[in-house]
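Submission sheet (multi-component)
Chains listed below:
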Amino acid sequence: MASGLHNSDIPNPVLRWIDQRMPVFTMMQKEYGSFPTPRNFNYFWNFGALAMVNLMIMIATGIFLAMHYTPHTSMAFDSVERIMRDVNFGWLLRYVHANGASMFFIVVYIHIWRGLYYGSYKAPRELLWILGVVIFLLMMATAFMGYVLPWGQMSFWGATVITNLFSAFPVVGEWIVQLLWGGFSVDNPTLNRFFALHYLLPFVIVGVVFLHVVALHITGSNNPLGVEPKGPQDTLPFHPYYTAKDSFGLVIYFIVFAVLVFFAPNYLGHPDNYIPADPLVTPAHIVPEWYFLPFYAILRAVPDKLGGVLLMFGSIAVLFVLPWLDGSPVRSMRFRPIARIAFLLWTVAFFVLLWCGGKPAEEPYVTISRFATAYYFAYFLVILPLLARLEKPLPLPESIARAVLGGGPLPAGAAAKPMEKA
Amino acid sequence: MADTGEATAAADGTPRRDFLNLVTASFVGLGVGAIAWPFVNSMQPARDVLALASTDAELGAIQAGQAVTVMWRGKPVFIRHRTAKDIEEARAVPMSDLKDPATDQSRVQKDQWLVMIGICTHLGCIPLGQKPTDNKGQYDGWFCPCHGSAYDTSGRIRVGPAPRNLDIPPYAFTSDTKIRIG
Amino acid sequence: MLRNSLKALAIVGGLIAATPGAQAAGESVAIPDAGFSFNGIFGTYDRASAQRGFQVYQQVCASCHAAHLLSYRNLRDLGLTEAQVAAIASQVQIQDGPNDEGQMFERPGRPSDRFRSPFPNPQAARASNNGAMPPDLSVIAKARAGGANYLYALLTGYEDPPAGMTLGEGMNYNRYFPGHQIAMARPLNPDQVEYADGTPATIENMSRDVSTFLAWAAEPEAEERRAMGVKIIIFLTLLAGLAYVVKRKVWANVH
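Outcome: structure written.
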């Protein structure tokens, strides 16, 4: 020990030799082996692990696609079709990557929804939550730039419309837009830098995900009851319990993924993106990828250019301050009957916005979007702060073990058994 | 109730569980292997690359003693119009002097036309000897400046580190003065 | 657990179901299902029909429409022999070069060549077509909502304009074209091509054949993709069963 070697108890001598000098195996054992995890997770708690796997899939397929893709306006479209036709398994790599983006957003939206429903953003997990919102923003930027790369009509016009958002800002707007374009319109310099950034940002995401996990392992996970574990009777070691549970969820996720990739690879895409980009013709009805539709609807709900842009960015920005807007000490919506209804309505508003975002900018969709937008913000800015003072939560269970394993009457709100039935 | 994973395995250590884990692990291994293959295989030449496999070369304008270089699959192909002296020199060599024995006859389709891939079989440099002013090496053929391999007038390795004679690409005469390589 | 899983599924389902709304907009007429063999999980391209469709493409469409992402060698996938493909390619003059004198020259096509485009550039294509650009047909079946069904509907959808409708200069009425005014005149007429296999060259048959050909041209990987998908989903279903049993065993004594 005088030598300063780590005191390792890994049995295998080779691994121990490494571990004494660089205790990665001890760390893995601590963080993913014996890590005490609340015993009452439901399947919503799979989605963090799914998102991690999804990120790895995107990076792996992306690197191999980049080996065949050409980021030049005159060759990008054809190089993507060459991947589809001539590269061995190129169609598989591309469809996994394209549908992987959709899967990533489905997984992350459910992950965020779970955080909102079970109050995972509340103290002491504020920073964990904020890092998550940063990941979400980076994902949106990455996805947006990735969609530009095939250089179809939607790529080009999506890039034009979204970069033009920045022109709404007074004084610096035009300067920012030129900076993004590297020219006077979306053109080859834009495509080139979007490719560079699309390759870079996923690795930034990996970095922030690492911080997200570090923060998670300091505070520990939240759980469906929103009650902190009070001792070993409330937790289980991560392995084998949650590795087994996550693995099952992972296979189900792969099945959904495979159905999309093999049987409906273009279902979530837009046919217009198989028309090569034409700077002289805007498609009759341009829409972003489905995962941006709610925010696109918020943008279009506002008749003022700057107002729309600010509100759209605001719809994400509000998430950053959410831990301080919702002052209720009760985390899980299971024990907040009114907030629960308000939040389920917010979920409806989100889907309504998603639906409106795909419709033309005409009545009645604009009016519907306005109501939904108003509710989206009202939930965060008005309803949650007010309910924190006014709502009388249901009595919380004494501990996770007590609620899950019985031993005493359960509070009415916990009647919906959080217990793992399987 | 609050058993650890190890305790569970011990208490429950029936063969069924072990067998189950084994089957599941093999399924996972199979899946991971199957996933890895498309990635690796995607790096192999694509179908359009494989299809672009032939090059036509016109020989009519090449005088005896001259040589031209054409591109085939991104590689230089040396075509030399050999003189009678070149041919004689190549055929006079006893097989025992050769590092990679091959008769001159086996390396040409028409005696005066030598067609070879112009890449040194050592580490891939392009040997000198195509231009009249080049150093052709001590055997009047080609000389690789990278590591000093010298080839004779039949493109056979005579001295230096290269292990093999210069490779002959597949080609065919489409007319008296035209060949198609590949 | 079950309830929560159902909830999760409902969310996924909701997200997926909500999206095609993005594409449904636009005031085009509903496209009837032409009942193509290649739609559906186990669907395959009718090779004979696709070969006839290539003939229609080559003899009719190709005079205005390029398909520059296709190569002659791809026709092997349609069941043509190597010799047939080489013969088809060699009938076309392909620009190559520059040669040793620095000149571009034309030579007979080879199987590795891309389909020859009828016009050297988009400007020339417009100039020869009354200002309208005939779109490249390589991926047209992927680039139009409705896919091959739309192509079939469009090709068979030429009719007289309804009373009171005035068409623009040089425009034609089509029931299924968005906005109904299409610059392309009715491209197919009965017996325009002569099928070697004796299939009557009606407008319907030619339309069906060329739509099949174009569907294949846009998604040549579709058959391989679906076949692989079936295998992978069977594999994953078995794995899901195993993973579930393992998970139950692991959790058995916790409750």
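Remark: Residues 408-422 of chain A have pLDDT under 50 and may be disordered.
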